[in-house]
Amino acid sequence: MQPFEILLESSAKAHGHLCPGQIVGVRMAMLGCRLIGLSEPTRRDQIKKLIVYVEMDRCTADAVAHVTGVKLGRRSLKFVDYGIMAATFFNLETGKAFRIISTEEARDLAAVYAPEIAEKGSRQLAAYKRMPDSVLFRVQKVHVNIDECDLPGPTRRKIVCSVCGQMIRDKRESMIDDRPVCRPCSGACYFTHAREVSWPDMNWSPGEQTPANRTNRDGDAGNRRFAIQ
Amino acid sequence: MLKKINVEDAVGTRLAHDITEIRPGEFKGPAFRQGHEVCNEDICHLQKLGKNHLYLIDLADDEIHENQAAAILAQGLAGEGIRWEDNPKEGKIGLHAAMDGLLSVDAAALAAFNMVDEVMCATLHSHTLAQKGQLVAATRAIPLVMKRAPVERAAAIAAQHGGVVSVKALKKAKVGLVVTGSEVFHGLIEDKFAPILSGKVTDLGSEVAGVSFAPDDETLITTAIRNHIDSGCNLLLLSGGMSVDPDDVTRKAIRMAGAQEVNYGAAALPGAMFLVASIDGIPLLGVPACGLHHRVTVLDLVLPRILAGEKITKKELAFIGHGGLCMDCPECSYPHCPFGKGM
Ligand SMILES: [Zn+2]
Ligand SMILES: [Zn+2]
Which of A26, A61, A169, B333 is deepest in the core (most CB within 10 A)? Predict the structure, then answer.
């Protein structure tokens, strides 16, 4: 793995700014990988061994994903929305898993670890670099029970919603009266009032020289918009 | 795990912890020690101490007794120059100075340690002069039974820079004194600086290898400084001429003598015009006139730290500010006062 400062710089660049969350996240990822025995998590031979569960969608999560190379699209990054500053690093090959929790007291301790810096933000950044892992984190050894349908690799199961006909992958259906139903149809869903619509420039495609595409290049596509009914 | 039992049913069991007895003005200490097997005659005594119930301990794999915890904590807290015995009394372990010297406390690690739930450590102030055997810190785990992991984490936090408390012996320096000022040099007024500074040096176990006097002349002061260095002094004290008056040339002379890292000004009263520099790696302290009129000044805060091998820079002189104001008590009780205790 690259040195901390290099990882921090690239992580902050990818995330958009340097913030305490980047420092905590980079260090959390370095510690997590060390604990489960992966020295180069982004290298070809190790990339498939790692799964990371992040328990918050905050700055820290970006840094953890950046350093470890885990990705939503690879199914190696799992977001579990607990609102806890923690992440679990799971080695698929060995089954070893450690959950690393960022301590709340680290915030209060910034003043004693960087007393010479008065400005709160810079003080926090400096202090989070100085604190040892033992102050910044608590670590739990955990068992992760991962379902086969949550693993990376090919889709394990496809099934069609008995209400709307939507294809559902990897056992995400619920069974209602012994029939598979997709999440939107089951009602346990983040949106309501779904209604299919048509939209402007419906025939646009990036590859084909359609009239719509040419207009796009001329930059006046915005003038041709019309309201969706 | 703890199980509560009636004291009458305790005969034959072993005590889970020390039981303290306080007889006002007479005795305070453990009436019974942990591990003592309770016998019939003890029941009355225990009841008199207000103990109608006792705990029986059944430790799970990941649990430890407070005494074991205290030992793990003490191990992490103790840096060099610290001695402690694995013989907790009422759950506490004391950390003692292994020799005369200067106590140093890693305040950040101490704060982080105490932020861990259910453990505590209290210390004397950092930079306190400690005598061999003196209690400088004490620690304990608060509950009778604790999980092992947080105790070990607290111990690791304590050990992050080699222990929260450490005592360093003061080295015996050969000190060269330069007393500046034309009036003293020409015998118009009697010098009082040399005896005061010599007293402070010898009190800390060092020796004054030479005292020289120089008028307010930068070349002559420079020569005096160089002579002390050439004759093997490894610490220089200069007095007088430290203010911003045009006649005060000592600072200029210090630079001419080859001083690097000159830090002029300390956040202490008395002692604002104090100066710390180094020449060829030899520390040089410039003592302003306040050293004549006050029993204790910033010099008393800095000199022991220099002798303990600490490097004093702008940062150290600045951090003295919190607690750096002398209260000018009619009867000075330093070091038993807040002066210089803020850091
Ligand atoms: Zn951020
Ligand atoms: Zn459906």
Answer: A26
Chain A: closest CA distance from residue B333 (Å): 29
Q: Tens of pLDDT along B313-326?
A: 999 999 999 999 99
The helix/strand/coil state of B217 is: coil
Beta strands in chain A (DSSP E): 50-54, 77-79, 86-91, 97-102, 137-141, 158-160, 167-169, 174-176, 179-181
Q: Say if A214 falls within a structural domain.
A: no
Q: Is the pLDDT of residue A225 over 60?
A: no
Is residue A50 domain-resident? Answer: yes
> For B156, which of A115, A116, A134 is closest by C-beta distance?
A134
Q: Does any domain span residue A204?
A: no
Number of domains in chain A: 2
Q: At what angle do helices B66-77 and B148-158 cross, to 10 degrees?
A: 20
Q: Say if B329 is an interface residue toward chain A (CB within 8 Å).
A: no
Residue with the two structure tokens 């949106």: A191
- Report the gap between the CA of B107 and the closest CA in chain A (Å): 7
Please name which of B137, B45, B32, B132 lies closest in space to residue B89, comparing C-alpha atoms: B32
Q: Tell me the Ramachandran region of residue B29: left when phi exceeds 0, alpha when psi lies from -120 to 50, beta otherwise.
A: left
| Residue A106: closest C-alpha in chain B | B112
Of B111, B80, B157, the closest CA to residue A114 belongs to B111
Which ipTM value was assigned to this complex? 0.75
CA distances from A117 to A5, A110, A122, A124, B122 (A): 20, 10, 7, 9, 26
Query: Band of the pLDDT at B248, cuts 50, 70, 90?
Result: confident
Domain that holds residue A101: 4-150
Query: Are A112 and B153 within 8 A, CB to CB?
Result: no
Same domain flag for A39 and A72:
yes
Q: Are residues A106 and A168 in the same domain?
A: no
Residue A199 has pLDDT above 70, yes or no: yes
Q: Residue B77 and residue B70: Cα distance in Å, rounded?
A: 10
Query: Exposed, middle or buried: residue B3 (CB in 10 Å: 0-12, 13-18, 19+)?
Result: exposed
Q: For residues A174, A179, A182 and A188, what is the CA-based torsion angle, rounded to 10 degrees?
A: -50
Is residue B78 within 8 Å of residue B157, measured between CB atoms? no
Q: Do residues A184 and A78 both lie within one domain?
A: no
Which residues from B are below 8 Å from A132, CB to CB?
156-157, 160
- How far apart CA A116 and CA B318 sit, in angstroms, is 9
Task: State how far the Cα of B305 lies from the Cα of A120, in Å rounded to an integer.
Answer: 30
Report pLDDT digits (tens) over B40-67: 889 989 998 888 898 888 888 899 999 9
Best of B147, B152, B160 to mutate (most A CBs within 10 Å, chain A): B160
Is residue A44 situated within a structural domain?
yes
Read off the pTM: 0.84
